[in-house]
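This protein record is not my work; I was only asked to verify it. The record follows directly below this note.
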Amino acid sequence: MAADKPQPHTRPVQTGPGKTGVPESAPRLPHEHDESADSQRSEPRPEMRQAHDDVAAGRVDTDRGPPSNEAYQKQKSPGKPRV
């Protein structure tokens, strides 16, 4: 299907100050590539597939961030808790 193939990118050619000429095929600028819908198509990364599989299997997150942060906050202010 033609909609699945990326269309060639065209950009107006500068022919003088403030003037544009006939569009010609040109490589995309970085922001044009990053923001284009066709550049977002890709296979899932292995890390994301593993994360999905872990959640689907009922595995729990073992991140030590919240307990570590709580311990740090207690050590940082041993007196009254800060609000």
